[in-house]
Write a structure and sequence with these properties.
Blueprint (H helix, E strand, L loop, with lengths): L1 E4 L4 H10 L7 E5 L5 E5 L7 E5 L6 H17 L4 E6 L18 H12 L3 E5 L14 E4 L2 H11 L4 E5 L5 H10 L3 E9 L5 E7 L6 E9 L3 H12 L5 E8 L3 H9 L4 E5 L12 E4 L2 H12 L9 E2 L2 E2 L2
Parallel strand pairs: 1-4, 4-5, 5-6, 6-7, 8-9, 8-11, 11-12, 12-13, 13-14
Antiparallel strand pairs: 2-3, 9-10, 15-16
């Protein structure tokens, strides 16, 4: 077994290797003067079970292309099996035709991963779980929830209510509420544009309670911050937010600095610089991904990684 990584999240790839006591595979990933990506695998992979770790975070298209080229290089080097490890799967929000004459880009990306030569996919917290069905190869879908649960349990929060910032996230919020033995509420929202969200009402009792907002990803933090403002207005005490993938741009950082959120808890699925003035806690999913890689290699069950307290995290 060998593990390689592109340039999107090298620290996570190294942490995965450290967690399972393996060296990170040697490869050269560079660019020609015109911007074209060049990849060379610097060690023998003939007949090996190979894993390519690459988050498709910004710059999304560059990181995707880098992964396709790495997979192609490994396939042409006679690797026995290639698993694309995507801690964050980009383009997942474009998973359906929600207006006329638009693509289903999540399906296109799935086709391209297969066309490049991947034999299977390992990913975490997809924006929509049905994206697994876009692939004609096996997909192992992990959840960051067990890592989040462990951290939240240590905080011993009292009077806790788990809140979904929109109707679509109710399943995830329900799973958190069951394990944390907390209440459940929903924020009804209306999306004005890709960057602007208006929170309108809270369904559930949150007055005088500590609130945990849960979501799979945030970029501009519009949904989270507008929900937090509404919850504070409705009498919530402390507000925490749990987000698997925090792909924060400058708008999101500015909003979080001014927001009512006391702590944003996220993972290292995407590489992010240190942010001043943002109350952010980053938990590592390296051990989770490392254990999944080990089990895929040995053809063991991956299911138990997202079973928690006798129930599932999904």
């Amino acid at each position: 077994m060998k593990i390689f990584t592109g340039t999107s999240n090298r620290p996570l790839a190294q942490a995965i290797c450290d967690s399972i006591s393996m060296p990170l595979g040697a490869c050269t990933v560079d660019a020609f003067p015109d911007g074209e990506t060049f990849v060379k695998i610097d060690e023998n992979v003939r007949g090996e079970d190979v894993f390519v770790v690459q988050s498709t975070s910004p710059p999304t298209n560059h990181n995707l292309m880098e992964m396709f080229i790495m997979i192609d290089a490994l396939r042409r080097s006679s690797a026995k099996r290639i698993t694309a490890v995507l801690p964050f799967y980009g383009y997942a929000r474009q998973d359906r035709k929600d207006q006329p004459r638009v693509p289903i880009t999540a399906k296109l990306v799935a086709n391209l991963i297969v066309a490049a030569g991947a034999n299977r996919v390992l990913t975490m917290d997809l924006h929509a779980q049905q994206i697994q069905g876009f692939f004609d190869i096996p997909v192992d879908h992990l959840y960051a929830a067990p890592v989040m649960y462990d951290y939240l349990k240590q905080k011993t929060l009292t009077d806790l209510v788990v809140v979904s910032p929109d109707v679509g996230g109710i399943k995830m919020a329900h799973a958190y509420s069951q394990v944390l033995e907390a209440g459940l509420a929903i924020v009804a929202k209306r999306r004005k544009s890709a960057t602007e969200v208006e929170s309108m009402a809270v369904i559930g009792d949150i007055r005088g309670k500590n609130v945990l907002l849960v979501d799979d990803l945030t970029e501009t933090a519009g949904t989270l911050t507008s929900a937090a403002t509404l919850l504070k207005r409705k009498g919530a005490k402390k507000i925490f937010a749990c987000v698997s993938h925090a792909i924060l741009n400058q708008t999101g950082i500015d909003r979080l600095r001014k927001s009512k959120i006391d702590e944003l808890i996220t993972t290292d699925s995407v590489l992010r610089p240190a942010l001043d003035g943002v109350p952010i806690t980053t938990l590592s999913v390296a051990a989770l991904l490392g254990e999944a890689i080990k089990r895929i290699h040995s053809n063991s069950s991956v299911t138990s990684l997202f079973e928690f307290k006798g129930g599932r995290t999904s």
